[in-house]
Amino acid sequence: MVELKTDTSIDAMYEAGQVVGRALTAVQKAADVGVSLLELDEVAREVLRGAGAGSPFLGYRPSFAPTPFPAVICASVNDAIVHGIPTRYRLRDGDLVSIDCGAELGGWAGDSAISFTVGEPRPDDVRLIETAERALAAAIDAAVVGNRVGDIAHAIGTVCREAGYGIPEGFGGHGIGRRMHEDPGVPNEGRPGRGYPLRHGMALAIEPMLIASGRDGYHAAADGWTLRTDDGSRAAHVEHTVAILESGPRILTAR
User: Fold this and answer.
1) Which of 58, 114, 127, 162 is most buried, with most CB under 10 Å away?
2) What's the whole-model pTM score?
3) What are the EC numbers (predicted)?
């Protein structure tokens, strides 16, 4: 069931989203050659603690997961698409890093992700990340009252496919509110004019995921969480929590 939020609730979600935005900004600033993924997780934890916020990631265990998630961020490096568990791995020059983070504040959730490079960037990685951000921007532009979820999905898929990138099938965004994952699902590829109608008060986490090689294949890593590209090519992941309003889309996790 899709829950429509009041304007007051949307304002409360914005507060949670701002905590997420600050956490992601702090993590990106701290990410440098030699810094471990566990150290980045601690940076995010400190931001959440300082805001009096909880983490919807920590301890989360969906049906596919062998263990509860042990961190407050997902840290996915190079060929990892999403759901990477922070480890002692230390960042290297040229790494492509995707960080996903959530916050719970006042009974409401926010969820957002960024991708960036560490050290000297590879031109192909820069193009991949820029395309992911363009896909997210196009999706947000389509997130208006009167459109449908398929219009968001089509906007993402069009940008990604025209640039020659792959899209991992079966993964995408979701509704969000009192819980991190709510209805409806928001695919990263689809047909316009199809799917659930967008109405004032809906809140969606929109999250393009791109595979550099143009292939769509992926596999689960041994940890049971991390999704990696089948061919070892690099991936990017970006995300914002967005409210659907009569006045237009409102980004709740803007940084």
Assistant:
1) 114
2) 0.97
3) 3.4.11.18
- Which residues are part of a known binding site? 83, 100, 111, 174, 181, 207, 239
Residue 8 gets the label, from left (phi > 0), alpha (psi -120 to 50) or beta, of alpha
Query: Is the distance from CB of 75 to CB of 85 less than 8 angstroms?
Result: yes
Cβ atoms of residues 153 and 195 within 8 Å: yes
How many domains are contained in the chain? 1
Q: For residue 30, what is the domain's CATH number?
A: 3.90.230.10
Which amino acids are annotated as binding site for a divalent metal cation, given as ranges?
100, 111, 174, 207, 239
Residue 118 located in a structural domain: yes
Q: Is residue 1 part of a domain?
A: no
pLDDT tens-digit series, residues 28-77: 999 999 999 999 999 999 999 999 999 999 999 998 899 999 999 999 99
Residue with tokens 């719970």: 104
Binding-site residues for substrate sit at: 83, 181
Strand partners, 60: none
Number of CB atoms found within 10 A of residue 45's CB? 16
Task: Pick the closest to residue 189 from 213, 147, 161 (CA basis).
Answer: 161
In a domain, 2, yes or no: no
Distance set, CA 185 to CA 1, 50, 90, 141, 148 (Å): 11, 32, 34, 18, 12
pLDDT in tens, 149-188: 999 999 999 999 999 999 999 999 999 999 999 999 999 9
The number of C-alpha atoms within 13 Å of 122 and in the hemisphere containing its C-beta is 13
**How confident is the model at residue 186, as a pLDDT?**
98
